[in-house]
Amino acid sequence: MLVSLLLPVLLAVQGAAQPAVPADIAPVTLRIEAEEARQGVASDGVHIYAIDNDRIGKYRISDGVRIAQWKGDRTLFAHMNSCTVVGRELICAASNYPAVPQTSAVEIFDTRSLRHIRSISLGMGPGSLTALDRHDGAWWAMFANYDGKGREADRDHRYTTLVQLDDQFRQLRGWLFPAEVLARFAPFSCSGMSWGPDGRLYVTGHDRPELYVMRLPSAGSTLELLATIPIATEGQAIDWDPKTAHRLWSIMRGQSIIAASDIRWNGGKPD
């Protein structure tokens, strides 16, 4: 179904509080080679799903063996950015990047066979859909905007927008990022997003080895940065493991490797 998402017009402002910055890089506890690991990764706790523009590989975490693969028509699947597991479905965020006008879609797959089940076209919105997650009874979508390739004429990276959607993918609320995070995104945007088990929002940019811990503001339309955590992987899509505590999945894009990092952060102090 087509939906119409309104673009927030507020510009991000510098947050008043200084966020915590842990000194050490979060340790990588597991690496799995996956040729499809070019855009991101999703996990159901037993398997990981390596994501590329038009490919998905399903791997067992226990031994790293690929047990299923899907390959789509590139004319239909131009730029699949990220996925997350909801029940028995793999819910993926896709766009027509770098084409403009920007359009987005939700592509849904069966986790067992990787068969493509259905597609939900969002049409034109506040950016290119790069990440989608299910949290607190709603969908949460990240719409990216860029300074260079794939840019709409009247937008830049400052217009990167988090949107809360209902079950019909209609906009409920929206937020922009604070200036200190936008400066790290530039000239690209937000590529990864996953709600953590602690109720905080964890996001990554396009290429910096950093994980940003965010929360919704008590008022206004700008997200609050709580911490910047150094990680071993360079941006792109992420996903929390639903079975192993503290485990965050991400990719080493240049090496086609999926990495599990041990993230232990509690208000700026070690767990």
Summarize the structure.
This protein has one helix at 179-185; strands at 28-33, 40-43, 47-51, 55-60, 66-71, 79-86, 89-95, 104-110, 116-123, 128-135, 138-144, 161-165, 171-176, 192-195, 201-204, 210-215, 224-230, 239-240, 247-252, 257-262. By secondary structure, it is an all-beta fold. It has a single domain, classed as Neuraminidase, CATH 2.120.10.
Task: Record the strand order, biggest sheet.
Answer: 1-20-19-18
Strand content: 35-45%
Query: What structural class do the secondary elements suggest?
Result: mainly beta
In total, how many beta strands? 20
Based on CA inertia axes, which overall geometry fits? Answer: globular
CATH class: Mainly Beta
Q: How many structural domains does the protein architecture include?
A: 1
Reported for the largest beta sheet, the result is: 4 strands, antiparallel
Please report the number of helical segments.
Answer: 1
CATH superfamily: TolB, C-terminal domain
Low-confidence runs of at least 5 consecutive residues = 1-18
- Name the helicity range: under 10%
Would you identify the CATH architecture? 6 Propeller
Write down the secondary-structure element order. Answer: EEEEEEEEEEEEEHEEEEEEE
CATH topology: Neuraminidase
Report the radius of gyration as a whole number of Å.
17 Å
Keywords: Signal
Signal peptide: 1-19
Protein name: SMP-30/Gluconolactonase/LRE-like region domain-containing protein
